[in-house]
């Protein structure tokens, strides 16, 4: 049994874990392990927003893929789509780096191409976090298929202790050993010509939480899609439409796209939160998540070790200087624009 916190980031705790040292989780889970030399990671979300047929959106996505293939581009990226609360179609490409200098050298050109250029009938946005690894955690139900940021990690851990209890998410973040990671400040809108930038605040929280049912047999797939996914979708829709009141600035529930553009049997929710504490409160006590948790536990208890559904998440609590948000021709409820009280476009 390992600690989720790598040895080189362990420090004497001034804030204690929520379980005793001899706690044994009821089932195995794993975390991504970076090389000790990796001090920061980058997660960059490039979104295109449009209504109906929009050839310019497809051209923009091709151009973005070309930039990814250039020197300095991301070691890993994936793409997902969803229809947002305004009825707009969105395709979000998230790219990952474990080398900040490489990203910085690449990003200026990508930014000008993506949000510095007006295109007919579409909007574009960039949302970037570049946290020190001590402000970040991952969790996987299996160790043989990394997703998201874990693809650029050195590998996966053995079984870790800090999971399967409320508070495990916080306990896996190395920064939590000594820091409450409380939010400070209020999101502010800055206009740069047609571009809208949001300067958020210290200790903004991001979660990407995914599901992969591609390995399930027919009966398990039906159980997931009939009994679990509708409850998950209900909770994701609540966060999308009404989350601001409980500290969720924005939520996207997306289907991952395969390399050929088809819809895969993978999904993930991605949301921006005022704080880790707000995310924890929703997870532990809000009726929408209580129903998600109940449906998932019923599913897993029914299938036991034979379950083929794969689950994962990545959570970051970012310092103020580790964030970048920029939007061009997007509606006012897009991403972190929703955190600003009034946006006139």
Describe the structure.
The structure is a single chain. The protein is of the alpha+beta class. The protein has six helices and 14 strands. Strands 6-13-10-12-11-3-4-2-5-14-9-8 form a twelve-stranded antiparallel sheet. Strand 8 (188-192) and strand 9 (195-199) form a beta hairpin. The longest helix has 25 residues, at 218-242. It is globular. The chain starts with 31 loop residues before the first strand and ends in a 17-residue tail after the last strand. The model has no long low-confidence stretch (mean pLDDT 93). Belongs to the heme-containing dehydratase family. It comes from Bradyrhizobium agreste. Residues 1-20 are annotated as: Disordered. This is Phenylacetaldoxime dehydratase family protein. Its cofactor is heme b.
Quick structural gist:
The chain is of the alpha+beta class. It has helices at 55-68, 100-115, 168-171, 218-242, 276-285, 287-303; strands spanning 32-33, 42-50, 76-83, 89-97, 122-129, 136-140, 155-156, 188-192, 195-199, 204-212, 248-257, 263-273, 310-318, 323-328. Strands 6-13-10-12-11-3-4-2-5-14-9-8 form a twelve-stranded antiparallel beta sheet. A two-stranded antiparallel sheet has the order 1-7.
